[in-house]
Structures are given as C-alpha cells and as structure tokens.
Amino acid sequence: MIRVIVADDQEPVRTGLRLLLESLPDVEVVGEAADGVAAVRLARRERPDVALLDIRMPGLNGIEATSMLAGPTVADPVAVVVITTFDLDEYVHGALRAGAKGFLLKEAGPQLIGEAVRAAANGDALISPQVTARLLGEFSRPVKRVREPATPLTGREEDVLALLAIGLTNIEIGERLFLSLGTVKTHIAGILAKLGLRNRVEAAMWAYESGRVRSED
User: Fold this and answer.
1) Is 28 helix (H, G, I), strand (E, B) or coil?
2) In angstroms, rounded to a whole number, what is the distance separating the alpha carbons of residues 28 and 3?
3) For residue 31, what are the β-bridge partners?
4) d(Cα 80, Cα 126) in Å, to the nearest integer?
5) DSSP 120-140
6) Cβ pair 92, 84 in contact under 8 A
7) Which parts of the sequence belong to the Response regulatory domain (predicted)?
C-alpha cells in the first residue's frame, strides 16, 4: 500500500483529492494539511511514500515545502508531487527545481493521479502531458549553455529523451520506439547516469535547456 499525505489550503479540494486517492486500490491517505508548515511537519512525522502538495499555500508555499522535504541537501527525502490549478505556472517550474518528482493539474483524473503517485513512490517521476511542452519550453528559453555529458548519449538514448521530454510515459515511449518496457527503463537509467541527474523531470528540463527539444516540437 502506498502511503500518501495531501496538503491544500482549501478543504473541499483536500476532501476531493482524498476521496479520489482512496478510490485507488493500492493507495492509503495517512494525513491532510491545510498549509505548508503543517505539511512539512506531517510529512516528517508520518514519513509517507508520497506527499501531494498544492503549489499555493500559506505559511510555506509548495516550492518551499518541497525544498524542505525533497531538496538536494535533504538526507532522507520524501517523494513530492506538486499539484496546481494552472497549466503554465512559474511556481511549478520552481518546485521541480526544488526536488519535486512531478506535477499534475487538479483536474487530472484518478488514472493520471494514480500513475503519478505510483511513479513517485517507485523513485520515478511523471509530468502531466498536458503541460510538459508549454511549461518546460517556456522557462527554458533562451537555450542555455548546459554541460554536455562526458560520454555522449547514444542515438537511441536521444530518441528516448526527446519523447520523455514531451511527457510520454515509459509504456508510450516503448510503443513509439518499438522497445520493451525494460529496455526503455534501461535507456532512461543510462541517460540519468550520463547527465548526472536524479529523475526524468530533471532530464526533461535538460532536454529543453540544451535545445534538443523545443516547445513547438
């Protein structure tokens, strides 16, 4: 069972998310918080598998709470998924930089929320396909000077990275490239190792920042 906490300053939203999550057979909601300070306190006490955090909360916002729970200096991070009302929001980009393993729109249905929670619990990440290209493309322009890996990506790794960056899941990447799920996971692991990145969210941002993928692609 995947243990999840939900943090949002609006009680109806928290209730809706709880009901949605508890409709999934492998998810258990172990606590709720109405602000960022309470969310951090709750996460540290309960040690959930995943913290689902609203981006805009009093006390600490979603970015600050994410940094405290999942930032690069955190010794024992909690997997964070950020959820937002807006499909183009600079705060979401900041949350990804702070260590979030993905983000979703509040209108996402049970299937996508379930996929995101499961991915985060497994150490992977999921970006809502509806907003991936627009969000990452918008905040990655102009193309930055990024560090190229000492060992170049293979052609197949470049193909996988391009599809990952536009929000495709591992299964969809496999179907597009005629690869098994295990092979896709192996390629993603190779990409992350070569780039020195933690997860597919960072890999997607790197793809945009390096100019390999553009928002209009």
Assistant:
1) strand
2) 5
3) 5
4) 11
5) HHTT--EE-TTTHHHHHHHHT
6) yes
7) 3-121
**Residue 76 amino acid letter:** D
Q: Which residues contact 73 (CB under 8 A, 6 or more apart)?
A: none
Q: What angle do CA 196, 123, 14 make, to 5 degrees?
A: 125
Amino acid (1-letter code) at residue 191? I
> The whole model's pTM is what?
0.72
Give the orientation angle of helix 90-98 with respect to helix 132-139, to 10 degrees: 80
Per-residue pLDDT of 23-58, as tens digits, reads 999 999 999 999 999 999 999 999 999 999 998 899
Q: What is the CA radius of gyration of the chain?
A: 17
CA distance 1 to 25: 8
* 100 contacts 121 by C-beta, under 8 angstroms: no
pLDDT digits (tens, 9 = 90+) for 152-176: 999 999 999 999 887 787 888 999 9
Dihedral-angle region of residue 99 (phi above 0 means left; psi in -120 to 50 means alpha; beta otherwise): left
Question: What whole-number distance in Å separates Cα of residue 10 and Cα of residue 97?
Answer: 25
Q: What domains does the chain contain, in order, with CATH numbers?
A: 2-128 (3.40.50.2300), 143-209 (1.10.10.10)
The label of the residue with tokens 């907003």 reads 131
What are the structure tokens assigned to 167, written together?
């929000």
